[in-house]
Amino acid sequence: MNPMFTAIKVLFLKWFQPSAGSELEKAVKPSSSDGNMHDDETIPINQVSDIEGGSKFSDLVPYDENLLERSRTQWQFGDWESLAGIDRVTLQHHPERAKLALLAAAGRLQLGQSDQASPFIRLALDWGCSEKLVAQILCSGVYNSLGCAAALAGRQDKAELSFSKAVALGAGGADVSLLKIARVNQQSKRLQIFAGDLRTTPQNERLQPIKNQFKLATSGLIDVDYFDVSAEVINAWIVGRWSFLSKLDNADLVTNDNKALLVAYSALGYQQLDDPNSVDRCTRLALEWGLPREALKKILGSGIRNTLAIAQVLSDDFKAASENFIASVKLGTRELREVDVKSRIRQQLKGIKEINQEKCIAELNKYIEEACVTKNSKGEK
To answer: What does each C-alpha distance from 320 to 8, 126, 308, 328 come to in angstroms?
Structure first.
């Protein structure tokens, strides 16, 4: 049994502890203002990030020293096109790349490019932006869009109030009244330019960018629909057909709208097939394509629970094994179904010759039925 539990320990260390030699660990740590911030304080977008190794970036690769200040001014005025023009190559080696990635995301969101904005939000977090600052800028975008909607409806008082709230969320100690005037003037010009298109666009389409930003701002940044995939993929995950999931990693993957989620399931398949190199590659792709790190941990964590359950069956610890099998088929808000757990157990034990499969399944099912009855009686999912 020792080799099995050694392998499990390696899996836990591999997937739930960041590598000490990783690029992010060497280069970034989360930024904060003074270490004693109160919950009701806002973080100014021009605050200098506490980034370890920032001088290393500037020593090795030249960067635009005025980029952050220029981008901050563009955000204050609402020059979204310029902010959306910031690409990853431009900010990659900048010592304030976390803030710049966040501003680049803000610009894209205001232009309705939510799919392109999401990876930049994830980069901002990975590179050291606090979730508080990210939430502030996302909420600021919601207020800006509400201000534009009010202006188009002729509600100038509500428009100015919304624009004021928008700039206040990232202004820090700056004069909000002056910034509000600059934002109102800039947004008014943009609305005049696009007024014709907006008047001919159905209302639900005009409101969609606002809805997208509100969803991002209120989702806790890790709100993922784990089952936004085909029924075939969901069924393969339920029973644990790992070979099928690993084969999602193919040439057609990049053409899928939900490629980040699919490649994460592929990583899970490779994990259970003990192919660490493929797991590493798929994990990097999932993060690069915008899947939140916490969501990836939950998907791979379900696989670790599956591995633990199998090891516990081999040691005749059926109660603990049943608990881990149950945990292995729980993702997101999906309702726990007894039939899913039993299907997973039968599939996972099918190839193990060292056990009496039917006896083990019967023992596990007793605990599964008891656990599911208890959860249902409590109204748990």
So the answer is: 15, 35, 9, 12
Instruction: Tell me, yes or no, whether 306 and 370 share the same domain.
Output: yes
Distance in angstroms (rounded) separating the CA atoms of residues 78 and 55: 30
Burial of 278 (0-12, 13-18, 19+ CB in 10 A): middle
In angstroms, the CA 204 to CA 373 distance is 43
Domain count, the chain: 2
**What range defines the domain where residue 305 resides?**
225-378
Band (336; pLDDT cuts 50, 70, 90): confident
The predicted pLDDT at position 212 comes to 53
Looking at per-residue confidence, does 153 or 163 come out higher?
163
The answer on 313 and 214 residing in a single domain is no
Cα–Cα distance for residue pair 203/197, rounded to 1 Å: 12
What is the per-residue pLDDT for 46?
57
The verdict on 100 and 242 lying in the same domain is no
Q: pTM for the complete prediction?
A: 0.47
C-alpha triplet 72, 212, 189: angle, nearest 5°: 50
Pair 57, 84: CB distance under 8 Å: no
Please report which residue ranges of the chain form alpha helices under DSSP H: 2-16, 23-27, 54-60, 67-77, 80-84, 88-91, 97-110, 114-126, 131-152, 156-171, 176-199, 203-218, 231-239, 242-246, 259-272, 276-288, 293-314, 318-328, 338-349, 357-378
Q: What tens digit of pLDDT does each residue of 20-57 get? A: 433 333 333 333 334 333 444 566 665 544 433 343 44
Between 128 and 17, where is the model more confident?
128
